[in-house]
């Protein structure tokens, strides 16, 4: 079970009093595995430990955006199923939502390192509002078809690439390094509540009442979020070094990721998990309607269960890091999700499926929060958009392949068989993740901070 991750972050700058600036000390360089030097933070004296006013200004905008997206999480596949009950066209819709990550994540990551991220986020959400408003008109006039739905999905996915790349790159500038886990936990909690706990059931219920109403709600949510984001203070835009091209800047991000053994290994493992998890996500609506035999509005029950689990995972992430370190928290997140998927594939009882949905989503949220904080702590700020672009390309780029493979497998076998294959594959990848975490445990648990840019 792989949750879409969009952690909208603010654009303000974290300010440190002159008397309380932290000293940054360069740690020993690891020669054996090619890992860049690890930096450790000195003593922070007089530094505010809260998340800051800028963070809390953006948080409502983030929640509104997640709510609008959450309504569509339930309504869009229901609309597709109302147009066709063939598994392949239904899962193709999921593929088109994520295909832009494969095509555009790299160049967009480089552009995000150049542009004002606040404005990028606002324009992306404005574009999503316009596309969904047009889709609403097509539904009302009864002129929507599966082909037009595919076009809308591709446009929405492209806008999401710009929004998510810009949003992810900002958090380290807003909060102190030791607050990254906490900030990501709050944002992840808002995401889960908006997308699943609140947005999911609202979207399913509204679709059952009138198929156009959830899409109108989505358009409003994205429009309001864009308006709120646009009120945030401007961020100084990084200026590319003289004589560099977009291609050379992308290559710089690729070289950094290739040279960092830990992040490179976890990125590869995450890509496999994301593709296998996409098989589950793309077939979830068919599992609910055909295996559990729930009505359309009942599909929201599974999303509520996932939302509750996601909130629990967001709340548990920071305490779990304190209890067993980042490596232990990441291992928990990697291992619990496959268990839930495998058992779900074997049951047809709604309450058991709901419990397992909660367990799986909680474990994914823990992984997302902790791994995002680890990357934000390690990757240099001036490279973060590009390194994230590489990461998103391999992660989200594999999702269309997994979603389509799940549809083909379900077509020739059954929905439950496809889900079982998804869980078994994720379990194998989890074993590899645990091996990586044990090998690099000192780096993961060191509480590293962002390196100073050269």
From TrEMBL:
It is a multi-pass membrane protein. The keyword Glycosyltransferase does not apply. The chain crosses the membrane at residues 67-84, 90-110, 215-232, 265-289, 301-321, 328-344, 350-371, 383-409, 415-434. Keywords: Cell membrane, Membrane, Transmembrane, Transmembrane helix, Transport. It is found in: Cell membrane. It comes from the Bacteria. Gene3D superfamilies: MFS general substrate transporter like domains. Pfam families: MFS_3 (PF05977). CDD domains: MFS_MefA_like. GO terms for cellular component: plasma membrane. PANTHER family: INTEGRAL MEMBRANE EFFLUX PROTEIN-RELATED (PTHR23513), MAJOR FACILITATOR SUPERFAMILY ASSOCIATED DOMAIN-CONTAINING PROTEIN (PTHR23513:SF6). This is MFS transporter. The lineage of its organism: Bacteria, Bacillati, Actinomycetota, Actinomycetes, Nakamurellales.
């Amino acid at each position: 079970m792989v949750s879409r991750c969009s952690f909208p972050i603010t654009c303000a700058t974290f300010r440190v009093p002159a008397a309380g600036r932290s000293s940054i000390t360069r740690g020993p360089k690891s020669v054996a595995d090619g890992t860049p030097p690890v930096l450790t933070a000195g003593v922070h004296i007089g530094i505010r430990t809260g998340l800051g006013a800028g963070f809390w200004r953006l948080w409502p905008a983030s929640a509104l955006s997640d709510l609008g997206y959450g309504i569509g999480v339930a309504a869009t596949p229901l609309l597709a199923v109302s147009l066709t009950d063939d598994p392949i066209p239904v899962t193709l819709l999921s593929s088109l939502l994520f295909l832009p990550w494969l095509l555009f994540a790299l160049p967009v990551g480089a552009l995000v390192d150049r542009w004002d991220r606040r404005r990028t986020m606002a324009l992306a959400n404005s574009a999503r509002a316009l596309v969904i408003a047009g889709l609403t008109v097509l539904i009302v006039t009864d002129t929507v078809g599966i082909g037009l739905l595919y076009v809308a999905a591709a446009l929405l996915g492209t806008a999401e690439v710009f929004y998510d790349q810009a949003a992810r790159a900002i958090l380290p500038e807003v909060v102190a390094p030791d607050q990254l886990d906490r900030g990501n936990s709050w944002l992840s909690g808002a995401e889960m509540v908006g997308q699943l706990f609140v947005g999911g059931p609202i979207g399913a219920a509204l679709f059952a009442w009138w198929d156009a109403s959830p899409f109108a709600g989505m358009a409003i949510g994205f429009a309001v979020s864009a308006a709120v984001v646009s009120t945030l203070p401007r961020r100084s835009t990084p200026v590319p070094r003289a004589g560099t091209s977009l291609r050379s800047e992308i290559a710089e991000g690729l070289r950094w990721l290739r040279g960092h053994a830990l992040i490179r290994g976890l990125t590869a493992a995450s890509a496999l998990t994301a593709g296998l998890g996409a098989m589950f996500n793309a077939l979830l609506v068919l599992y609910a309607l055909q295996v559990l035999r729930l009505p359309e509005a009942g599909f929201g029950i599974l999303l509520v269960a996932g939302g509750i689990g996601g909130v629990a995972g967001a709340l548990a992430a920071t305490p779990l890091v304190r209890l067993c370190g980042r490596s232990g928290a990441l291992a928990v997140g990697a291992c619990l999700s496959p268990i839930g998927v495998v058992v779900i594939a074997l049951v047809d009882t709604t309450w058991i499926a709901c419990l397992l949905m909660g367990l799986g989503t909680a474990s994914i949220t823990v992984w997302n929060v902790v791994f995002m904080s680890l990357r934000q702590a390690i990757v240099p700020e001036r490279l973060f958009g590009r390194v994230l672009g590489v990461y998103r390309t391999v992660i989200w780029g594999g999702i269309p392949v997994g979603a389509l493979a799940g549809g083909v497998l379900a077509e020739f076998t059954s929905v439950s068989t496809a889900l079982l294959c998804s869980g078994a594959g994720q379990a194998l990848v989890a074993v590899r993740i645990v091996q990586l975490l044990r090998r690099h445990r000192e780096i993961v648990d060191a509480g590293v901070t962002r390196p100073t840019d050269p």
